[in-house]
Amino acid sequence: LKPHGKILIVLHSQHLRTDKLPPQFQQMVQRWLIDGMVYATPAGMNDDWFWLYAAIMTSIGGKHPYIISNDSMSDHHSALCVLAQSVTHQHKLFLKWRER
What we know:
Blueprint: E1 9-12, H1 23-34, E2 38-41, H2 47-60, H3 74-84, H4 89-99
Parallel strand pairs: 1-2
Helix pairs in contact: 3-4
């Protein structure tokens, strides 16, 4: 897979601690850090806000960012349902975006 733009990996800072990383991944993560591909979110903060912000800010420039995540965003979906109180157009758009 050849990237068509910059790659940004957003991880909690705890996942980048060398004492917690399996030895077989330490060199790869070090390379990501050297290449400026990793943004480490501060302890105690939800990493979702950081990658969502990066995606939105990239989109404003007319680009189309691709997000790869194992996060189902169920917490965001639940919050949206509470705000919407029903299936609204925005809710449908969120579900469509999440499935992309």
